[in-house]
Design brief:
With 435 residues, the chain is α/β, with parallel strands linked by helices. The chain contains 13 helices and 18 strands. The strands form three sheets. It has a seven-stranded parallel β-sheet, with helices on both faces. A seven-stranded parallel β-sheet has the order 10-11-9-12-13-8-14, with helices on both faces. It has a four-stranded antiparallel β-sheet with strand order 16-17-15-18.
């Protein structure tokens, strides 16, 4: 299949992606170690897409991931790269029968799935894997942990035709279980090329053990910047998120105890800039490809160096820069594994009021089933809505409706200007969604 990089706004591949592309094209099995944010998903998808046969109705490749959100994002990137590709994300948190019907009608070339849900579909013959020749295990250090190993062992035993295995991680490990298959891997290690100066490490001292007021003051000083706040426990996520909302900060929460649709909605609002602050457990420290995260805030300290690496990896993605703040209570100190020089930041005496996000989400009641494309939406908003392209952010076209991030300052006037107008000859509803 052919792919189009410009659909992702990418002009050229970085050195890691070029190396991976050339290696995987040879059919070699690969272990790719590369920092978070370096573009590993694109690195394995490009050679994989080149091998898939668009004319076939067979499932030809599987991508196994440790989280629901990573399955969704992987499938989304693949779709955007290649319009011919039939791809499906399979994961827990929604009815398996719903996915079964989707798989039956779609006949995907590629499936991105979490281990438990993938095993369920294979055992029920909802997926026929006889012609799957390429297996990708993303975040393999997580996917091959003890909790997943029995499932992974069973899955690998149901894939008789695998010719190429691709394993990816942002942390090094020599432990690849024998059931994964061949030991004849080409090892590509780009971890040493991570640039320490991309992330500024900063300390903020809290005068009280309860750090809520210090966090609030810090977020107020950061204004409209996108900040990801890491908290240790689900209950703490709820408490911190609720407090920030009460103080007028537009914050969304994210943890494993939430309904899947609520997690997806919160993640979408943070990704498109509708909310500035995202409060999460370490669930958000792996696999989420969120662009332009300015700050990582360690409200609770990471459990170990690996957890710290994955948390900080959510900022300074690709060639961007970012900051990581450690909020320390009166009896806390920086972990011993942090050997870099760390600046202590003093909060100003007078802090600004909480800033509203620069973007707000516009709901359009038409989508893919109505033959609406991203290009149609951009054309409509610029010609009939009077917006400049710089006032339009992320666009997501779903089957029956669409979401568009638009400049908050222009949103009210836009809504008046497009009220009652047709998009691509069709009348529909336009509304501002979210905050």
């Amino acid at each position: 299949m052919n792919y189009e990089l410009n659909r992702l706004g990418i002009d050229a591949l970085n050195a890691m992606q070029q190396d991976m592309l050339q290696t995987a094209r040879k059919g070699s099995s690969v272990v790719l170690l590369s920092p978070t944010g370096s573009g590993k998903t694109l690195a394995y998808l490009l050679p994989l897409l080149e091998k898939l046969d668009a004319k076939s109705d067979d499932l030809q490749a599987l991508v196994i991931v440790p989280s629901r959100e990573l399955a969704i994002q992987t499938a989304d990137v693949a779709r955007r790269l290649c319009s011919e590709l039939r791809v499906c994300a399979c994961y827990g948190g929604r009815p398996a029968m719903e996915e079964h019907q989707l798989l039956k009608g779609l006949r995907p070339h590629l499936v991105a799935a979490t281990p438990g849900r993938l095993l369920d579909h294979l055992q029920k013959s909802n997926l026929l894997a006889d012609n799957v020749q390429t297996l990708v295990i993303d975040e393999f250090d997580k996917s091959l942990e003890l909790g997943f190993r029995e499932q992974m062992n069973d899955i690998l035993g149901m894939l008789p035709s695998i010719k190429q295995r691709i394993l990816l991680s942002a942390t090094d490990t020599e432990d690849i279980p024998a059931f994964v298959g061949t030991r004849d891997y080409v090892r590509l290690n780009f971890l040493d090329e991570e640039s320490d100066d991309r992330i500024s490490l900063l300390v903020v001292k809290s005068p009280e053990k309860d750090k809520l007021q210090t966090l609030y003051r810090l977020l107020c000083t950061l204004g409209t910047q996108k900040s990801l706040v890491f908290v240790g426990y689900r209950e703490s996520v709820e408490r911190v998120g609720g407090f920030l909302e009460e103080q007028g900060i537009m914050a969304d929460i994210f943890h494993g105890g939430m309904e899947q649709r609520d997690r997806e909605r919160a993640l979408y609002r943070f990704m498109n800039g509708t909310c500035n602050v995202f409060v999460s457990t370490d669930l958000a420290s792996r696999g989420l490809d969120i662009s332009d995260v300015d700050n990582i805030i360690h409200y609770h300290l990471p459990l170990n160096e690996e957890a710290c690496t994955h948390r900080n990896g959510r900022t300074a993605r690709w060639d961007m820069k970012g900051s990581a703040y450690f909020i320390l209570g009166p009896e806390e100190s920086l972990p011993s594994y942090i050997v870099e020089e760390v600046e202590t930041v003093a909060m100003p005496t007078k802090i600004p009021k909480p800033a509203k996000p620069l973007w707000i989400t516009l709901y359009i009641g038409k989508g893919k089933k109505d033959k609406i494309s991203r290009g149609d939406i951009v054309g409509f908003l610029t010609k009939q809505g009077g917006l400049e392209s710089s006032q339009i952010g992320r666009i997501d076209v779903l089957p029956h409706w669409s979401y568009v991030a638009v400049e908050r300052a222009s949103a009210s006037k836009l809504l008046k200007d497009i009220k009652g107008l047709k998009i691509k000859g069709q009348k529909t509803i336009y509304a501002l969604a979210g905050h």
